[in-house]
Amino acid sequence: MAVIGFIGLGNMGFPMACRLKEAGHEIRCFDLNAGSMARALDAGLGPRASVEETVSGAEVVITMLPSGRHVLDVLAADTLPLAPGALVIDCSTIDVASCAIFHETLQKKGLATLDAPVSGGVSGAAAGTLTFMVGGTESAFARALELLRAMGKNIFHAGAAGAGQAAKICNNMLAGISMVAVSEALHLAKRLGLDPKRFHEIASTSSGQCWALTSYAPEPGLVASAPANRGYEGGFASELMLKDLRLAEQAAVASQSPALLGAAAASVYAMHCAAGRGRLDFSSIIKMLGA
Ligand code: NAD
C-alpha cells in the first residue's frame, strides 16, 4: 500500500482521496480551504499543515486543483521536498501549455509524471467510477494503474505526456457542442408543433442520435436520470463546461485547428453563465433558447 500526498480536496478531490483511503492507502492531504481540511480530518484522511508536509516522504503525489496556474503554483516550486523518484499525477483539467510545463519541470528533477484528467463528475468520484484519460510513459502509467482503479472504472492510456488533457478537452468540446445542438433541435421541434417525447423517440433511433440526446436530454421528461428532471441541479456545472470549452479554444488557436462550433458553443455558455446560470448543469443551456 502506498503513502499518497493528495492536494486539492474540493468537490472532486475529497471523494477521490476517500476512495484511495478505502483501498488501504495512507493519505496525507492539504487544501487551502479550512472547511475542506476539517472534512478531511473527520474522514480520517490525515490533513497536513502545508503542501511541503504533504509531499514530504510520499511515494505518490496527486493534485486535483482548479486550473493550470494552481497546479504549477503548487508543484513547480524549486524547494518542494518531493521524494526522489516519486510519481506525480495531476488529475485536474488544465491547459495544454501548463500541462507541458508540469511534465517538463518535474521530469527534470527525476520524477515520474502523468496527466490524468477525469470524466464522471462528483457522483462518479464518490462511486469510484470515474473515467481517467492518462498521458505519460508506459512505465509511469503501469505504476499508477492500481491507484487509478481505486478511483475509476475506465482507465485509458491516451498516449505520451499531455495526451490525457488533449483527450479530455476534445471530448468536452464535443459534449458542449452536442448539448447546444440537441437543445436547438428540441426547441425547433416544439416550435414546429412536435411532441418532444415523440421527437426524442424518433431522433434517438435516427441520424441525430447522440449521448446528449439519449442519455442526458436537456428537456425534462425525456430521460429519467438526466439533471433536467431535477431543476438542472448536480451534474456538470455550466461554468465548468465553459472552462473546458475555453481550454479547447486555446488549444485550437495554438495548434491552428479549425474549431468553429467549439468557439460558438463557448460563446453560448459564456452568455449562459453571465445570466447567472453557471452553477446549473450544462444541459440547462436549453434555457438560453427560451425553452
Ligand atoms: P473545487 O473548486 O471544488 O476544488 C478545488 C480545490 O482546490 C478547492 O478545495 C481549493 O481550495 C483547492 N485549492 C486551490 N488552490 C490550492 C492550493 N494552492 N493548495 C491547496 N489547495 C488548493 O473543484 P473541483 O470541482 O473539485 O474540480 C477540480 C478539477 O477537476 C478542476 O480542474 C475541474 O475542471 C476538474 N473536473 C471537475 C469535475 C466536476 O464535476 N466538478 C468533473 C471533471 C473534472
Automatic annotation (TrEMBL):
Residues 4-159 form the 6-phosphogluconate dehydrogenase NADP-binding domain. It is an enzyme of class 1 (oxidoreductase). The active site is at 168. GO terms for biological process: L-valine catabolic process. One of its GO terms (molecular function) is 3-hydroxyisobutyrate dehydrogenase activity. Pathway: Amino-acid degradation; L-valine degradation. PROSITE patterns: 3_HYDROXYISOBUT_DH. The keyword NAD applies. It catalyses: 3-hydroxy-2-methylpropanoate + NAD(+) = 2-methyl-3-oxopropanoate + NADH + H(+). It comes from the Bacteria. Its EC number is 1.1.1.31. The keyword Transmembrane does not apply. Keywords: Branched-chain amino acid catabolism, NAD, Oxidoreductase. Residues 162-289 form the 3-hydroxyisobutyrate dehydrogenase-like NAD-binding domain. Belongs to the HIBADH-related family. This is 3-hydroxyisobutyrate dehydrogenase. It comes from Cupriavidus lacunae.
